[in-house]
Amino acid sequence: MSGDDFISRRQGRFDKAMAELAAERAAEMPMMKEIDISYRTMFAELAQRTLDGQFVADFPMEGWFVTVTVKGRDYWYFDLPTPEGKDKRTYVGPHSDEAITARVKAHKEIKDNIRERRRMVSTLRRAGLPGPDPFAGDITKALADAGLFRMRAVLMGSVAFSTYAGTLGIRLPSSAMQTGDADFAISAGVQDSLPPVLEILQSVDPAFRAVPHQADKAKMVAFQNAKGYRVEFLTGNRGSDEYTGKPSPMPALGGASAENLRFLDYLIYEPVRTVLLFREGVSVLVPAPERYAVHKLIVSSRRLTDTLGRVKADKDRSQAALLFEALVETRHDDELADAWAEAWDRGDSWREGLSGGLLRLPDKGTKALGKALGSQMPDLEKMRADGRSE
C-alpha cells in the first residue's frame, strides 16, 4: 500500500467517524425551536385579556356575584335583574379557580379593548403561532360566546392541540393540527344551561343538523353540516365498559346529550385555561398537555383497524410524540412523569393501552418519554417479545 493510499484511507475513516459523531450530536440536540420570549409574553397577556373580555360580555355591570355551596364546594354565580323583577342566575365557576375568583373581585375595574386583542392575535399568527382553521374558529367562538367554557367544558382534539405551542412556548408542526371535526367534553352537574346547541351551530352554518345516536335515536350527541364537519359532545365514564358508547342526558347542553367515553375523566382533570388565536382571541379550557399526550397514547391503541382507524392512530401517536418532546424541552419532565404514573396505576386496561401505544410511538417521542420517566420507562424489548409470543 502506498503512503498516499494509507493517508487517504485514514482520512476516510476519520471523516466517517466525524460524520457519525456529528449525527449523534445532532440526534441529541433539541429539534424543536422555542418561541421568542417576547411572543410568549404576548400570548400570556392575550390569554388574560381574552378572559377579561369574556367576563365583561358575560356579566354586565348592573348584576352582582354570589356564592353558592353545592355538595360542600363553593361556586360563584351571577345574579342579573330582569324586567319581570326576578333575578336571572348564571353559573360563573368554582371558588377554587384562582383566575375566576380574581376577576370576580376586580369585576368593576375590568376593561376590554377588542381592537388591541385583534392586533395581538394578528402579531402572534404572523410570528408563526398556530390558530384554528376559520370554520373551527367560528364554531368554537360561537359556543364560547354562548357560555360553553364558562360551564367548565373542555375543548378537545386537534383544535386544542393548536394552543399548546403558545402555552408551552415551543413551535409545533401545523401538519399535526389538521382536523375535520370539533369535540368538547363536559361534566354533569352544572346548574346552568346553554341555548339549544343546534341553534348556536346553525348561527355559523344553517346546514348543521342533529345526528341521532346509534344506541338511542332519541338522543343527540353530535351535529354535522353538509360538508361533513362534525361537532360532538363527550363526557367521562369511570364505570364499566358497558356504559361506553351510550349517550348521557346533559341538561347543561340545551337539550343535547354527551357520549360516554372511558379514560376521559383522566384527560379533562384540572384543565388549562388558554386562548385560541382566532379573531380577537377566544378564551378556552383545554386538557393539560401532559395528560393530552398520555391520553393520545392510550387512544391510539384502541382505534379500529380499518384505514380510517389506522390514520387516526398515526395522528394520535404523532401528537403524543410531539408533546412528549415539547414537555421535555421546556423542562416539564416532572408533570409528564406524574401524569404517566397516574395513568399506569389505574389498572390493567390502562397499562395495556399505554403499552400498545408505546410500541408504535415515533423514536423521538420514545426517547423524550424515556428521559422524563427514567426507571419508570417500560421495557420496550420485553413488550415486543411478549407481543410476538402471543
Automatic annotation (TrEMBL):
<feature type="domain" description="Nucleotidyltransferase-like">
    <location>
        <begin position="137"/>
        <end position="345"/>
    </location>
</feature>
<feature type="compositionally biased region" description="Basic and acidic residues">
    <location>
        <begin position="379"/>
        <end position="390"/>
    </location>
</feature>
<dbReference type="Pfam" id="PF12281">
    <property type="entry name" value="NTP_transf_8"/>
</dbReference>
<protein>
    <recommendedName>
        <fullName>Nucleotidyltransferase-like domain-containing protein</fullName>
    </recommendedName>
</protein>
<feature type="region of interest" description="Disordered">
    <location>
        <begin position="370"/>
        <end position="390"/>
    </location>
</feature>
<dbReference type="InterPro" id="IPR022550">
    <property type="entry name" value="NTP_transf_8"/>
</dbReference>
<dbReference type="InterPro" id="IPR058575">
    <property type="entry name" value="NTP_transf_8_dom"/>
</dbReference>
